[in-house]
C-alpha cells in the first residue's frame, strides 16, 4: 500500500496560486527531498498534505483513503506526521512529556479508564512511558529526559520535535527544514540520523531543506518547486545538472550563496 499519494493538488490564496497541480507518490522507505527557492510553495505542499489547508483542487490520499477536509490530528492518526519550520514544542513541558503526549495519540484506553485508574490504564501508561523513552533514545536525547523543552539547545529542540513526530507512529514523516539553524557538523549528523530513522522504522520521509548539498546527499529522489510549479523531479545527480533548476536557484538562494550578481535578461526573475 502506498502510504502517501498526492494527486494534482492546487492551492490558491485569493489570486495567488501557491501550488499548481502538485503530485507526489511516496513508497514505504523512500526518502525524498523537496527543494525550491523562497516562496516556491514547499511549506504550502506540507500544509495541504497534513490538513492545515484544504486543497483548492486535487486529492491527498493516505493509505488508499482520500483525506481532503480532514483535520490535521485526523490525518496524523492515519499515519502522516510532521515537524515545523518554526519549532512548535510544548515549551514549558519536559522533553519526556512532549513525546509522551504524542504517544497518547495512539493510546488504547479512554477517559473513564484514566478516571478510575484501571489496571488497563496503568498498563497503557507504562507502555507509553517505555515508548516515549525509546524515541528519546533514538533521537539521542535520553540525557535530556527531564529538562524543560525551552531550555534545550536549538539543535536538540529540533530533534525533540522529530521524536515527538515519531511517537505518533507515522508511516510518513514530513520534515520542514529540520536542519535550519544548525551548524555544518550538526546538519551532517542530523541527515545521517534521518536516514537511520528511515531504515529502522521503514518510514517514507519527505524533507524540505534549503541546503542543496545536504538534501542531494540524503535523498534518493528530489522534487523541485518554483513559483508553485514542479519544475523537475528525479535523482539528485540529474537534478543538480538540470538547467531549469539552476535557473530557479539563480532566482535567489543560489546567487546569494555564491555571491554572484543577478544576470539581467529575460531568464531572470523579477
Ligand atoms: N495562508 C496563506 N495566505 C496567503 N498566502 C500564502 C499563505 N501561505 C502561503 N502563502 C504564499 O504562498 C507562497 C508559497 O509560500 P510557502 O511558504 O509555501 O513557500 P516555501 O517554498 O515554503 O518558502 P520558504 O522556503 O521561504 O519557507 C508564498 O507566496 C506565500 O506568501
UniProtKB/TrEMBL annotation:
Transmembrane segments: none annotated. SMART domains: AAA. It comes from the Bacteria. One of its GO terms (biological process) is L-valine import across plasma membrane. Keywords: ATP-binding, Nucleotide-binding, Transport. The keyword Coiled coil does not apply. Gene3D superfamilies: P-loop containing nucleotide triphosphate hydrolases. GO terms for molecular function: ATP binding; ATP hydrolysis activity; L-isoleucine transmembrane transporter activity; L-phenylalanine transmembrane transporter activity; L-valine transmembrane transporter activity. Coiled coil: none annotated. GO terms for cellular component: plasma membrane. Residues 4-252 form the ABC transporter domain. PROSITE patterns: ABC_TRANSPORTER_2. This is ABC transporter related.
